[in-house]
Fold these 2 entries.
Entry 1:
Amino acid sequence: MAPRKIIIDTDPGQDDAVAILLALASPEEIEVLGITAVAGNVPLDLTSKNARIICELAGKVDVSVFAGCDRPLGRDLVTAEHVHGKTGLDGPDLPDPMMPLQDQHAVDYIIDTLDTEDAGTVTLCPLGPLTNIATAFQRAPEIVEKVQQIVLMGGAYFEVGNITPAAEFNIYVDPEAADIVFKSGVDIVVMPLDVTHKALVTKPRNDGFRALKTPVGVAVAEMTDFFERFDKEKYGSAGAPLHDPCVTAYLIKPGLFTGRHINVEIETASELTLGMTVADWWGVTDRPANATFIGGIDADGFFDLLTDRLARL
Ligand code: RIB
Ligand code: CA
């Protein structure tokens, strides 16, 4: 089977970095057409720099990286240095990138790519706030029906929020953008905290990264060593949750995951629950299903896949 053509939309972020590495290590299943950076974990100048740092760490300097929106559609930017550190990639000491940022704006790149590629052949993989995707859909509505699928990390239901009591960070930062995407009619697969909090980098798993004895393996071990602090302190987790790599792993081995096709709507009005993903998991409304909401993962299988693929870089 031909590899899936994807655009990774991202706000690196250590977990974004691992997701990008997994994608770049899996050419049989994934063709990364381009990487578009968005403001999120840290401001755009850092997310667009970090995306290139990761491509160079992977030895893939020919990947096109684009800078996109530097703030949400209609709100001030909220960042997460308290989780990811000042640089967004705290942990390993990685060199500044030599590869260039593309001149084209990320939103224009997304539009042009969907306009040019055959309809139904490009998957969008948002790993941060949905600002770039929503802006592209607003600016060029004709591309919406050409999207093959959106596989995104965001939201929460049983796990509730990680940035407020009700909301997960990616959705909270730009709830209006999320509302546009979830109402777009595109086939959406959602990796919420409900599943990503089951993908924890325990010490044996972290040791497995380090045991690769490669720059990539050691860097991933150092990244996850750093960003586990937040979740260990807040949740008592056994290690860092690999949120964004669940998106890439799903493209490679969807059988690792289980979920339900349900209705998911975004709270955009209430300040108390702003950014909440209201997931009708129990089917108590007649609202139409618009997303496959993932809740289960074969965590050992996920980490076996991840470690095997990182060993290739
Ligand atoms: O809530 C977790 C999500 O927010 C992840 O994508 C992480 O990288 C941050 O963007
Ligand atoms: Ca992210």
Entry 2:
Amino acid sequence: MSFTLVIHGGAGNITPAIMNAQQEKEYTEGLKEALDSGYDVLRNGGAALDAVVATISTLEDNPIFNAGRGAVFTKKGLNEMDAAIMDGSNLAVGAIAGVRNIKNPIALAREVMLHSGHVLLSGSGAAEFAINQGMTMTPDEYFFNQLRYDQWVEIRDTNYTQLDHKGDNLKSHVPNPEYKFGTVGAVACDEKGNLAAGTSTGGMTNKRFGRIGDSPIVGAGTYANNATCAISCTGHGEFFLRAVVAHDISCLMEYKGLSLQEACNTVVKDKLVKMGGEGGLIGVDSKGNFDFCFNSAGMYRGMRNSEGKEMVAFYG
Ligand code: ASP
């Protein structure tokens, strides 16, 4: 019996210089807790898909990550979340975009996949579907977080958008060295060799006009196919959308015979860099090979497998 779980909690300018001991402790504990919840599912013979939902739900409940409870604020001071899940065994997908007041967006994405007859639901329609399915809805206050609020207050009177950390100015495309991304994701290979991938995010602080990033878009921020790999991305979503990152990695493996690591390096460290797209991703293949790949200074990340290997790391 062999299985692997890999997670991320966002990429960006994550260096020892911007982290204090307390933050390192909080992120280590948050990532370990999420790994444990997915590992328990896999150890009990559970499916990769269920491990991904359990892992991401734990991350969504932890306000230090930009997903679920810790989702950033939009221009209107709301929390609008995106999430997707994909089952590599049958290429089934469920996704939600711009949804409010849902406690666990990844669980709603799975409901969409299993019970809606559709792939992607958005906004109030997705919330209506969630209520019909008996999902847990939460009031706006549940999502209040002083740090996220302060990040938003700094720029709410501008048309600037920022990626989960102060200073990233996407309007002028001036990268600020302080920024980091706090989206969460998980990929898993279960004992049957089935793969699954999931991603969940609050997107970008001060986002307007119903902006949607790469996370809920199949093939861009999230993709899984038993024949190749399962991928979850984090980074500047507009670039990940344009580069169709997750599916591109799968294609390089399927059509060109590249290994998971070779394919990830090609896309993240060459193609995305040339486009100016910063961020990273996690991947696993059906043999349990895994990869963390990022072109930013760091990425909150971790893995745990049936061979007893376990690790959590932040820096490059
Ligand atoms: N990729 C996400 C987005 O653009 C942000 C992130 O990874 O933090 O919505």
